[in-house]
Amino acid sequence: MAFTGTRHFTIKAMLALLLFFCASISAQETSTKSTVSKDSMTNGYDEQLAAELGADDYGMRLYVLAFLETGDATGLSQEERMQLQRGHMATINQLANEGHLVLAGPFVNGGDLRGLYLFATSDVQEAQALAARDPAIQKGVFKLRMTQWYGSAALLTVPATHERIQKQQP
Fold first, then answer.
1. Of 105, 115, 120, 140, whose CB neighbour count within 10 A is largest?
2. Which residues cross the membrane (predicted)?
3. Burial of 62 by CB count in 10 Å (0-12 exposed, 13-18 middle, 19+ buried)?
4. 3-state class (DSSP) for residue 61
5. Does the CA dihedral 156-160-162-163 come out positive or negative?
6. Which of these, 1, 124, 152, 7, lies nearest to 69 by C-alpha position?
7. Tell me, what's the pLDDT at 43?
8. In the chain, how long is the greatest CA-to-CA distance?
9. What pTM does this model have?
């Protein structure tokens, strides 16, 4: 079902879906590669893992959430757009492999809101510098809106899990 109404409502709906996703991840029991002693665990709490992920006492941490919107680029040929899209995907993969990008993906309902990045930093300027490596952003195909976001530190484990279930790269 496509979202209707103002763009403000669409962003709120997308954030609600993202928060639901994060809550469902943090509610699931996961196995980790950490060596855990019984002394470091209380009611399932893993102090070592929390420290590795930079979690606070609530299991949360700050990230930078970036919304990709349709940019102002005009006059690009189909070949240029395809080349920029390949560069865009390569940058996403590189940022993820370097540990800077936790989540990335497109919105499928069309409109000006095109996708999101979730950066593994709380520093908006650092996230802006990382995003500036994307050729599609450099050429104005996309523009960004960024904000700090407080979410589950467990999200940092998503890329490793995704790698295990991804059959082929886009």
1. 120
2. none
3. middle
4. strand
5. positive
6. 7
7. 80
8. 63
9. 0.74
Kindly give the confidence (pLDDT) of every residue in the chain, 170 residues in length, as a single tens digit, with 9 standing for 90 and above. 343 444 444 555 455 445 445 444 444 444 444 444 555 555 889 999 999 999 999 999 999 999 999 999 989 999 999 999 999 999 999 999 999 999 999 999 889 999 999 999 999 999 999 999 999 999 999 999 999 999 999 999 998 898 899 898 77
Q: Where are the domains of the chain?
A: 55-170
Q: Which residues contact 46 (CB under 8 A, 6 or more apart)?
A: 32, 34, 36, 40
Give CA–CA dist 127/147, Å, rounded: 10
Are β-strands 41-42 and 101-106 bridged in parallel, bridged antiparallel, or unpaired?
unpaired
Q: Which strands form 60-70's sheet, in the order they lie side by side?
A: 101-106, 113-119, 60-70, 142-152
What's the confidence (pLDDT) of residue 11? 53
Domain range 55-170, CATH architecture: 2-Layer Sandwich (3.30)
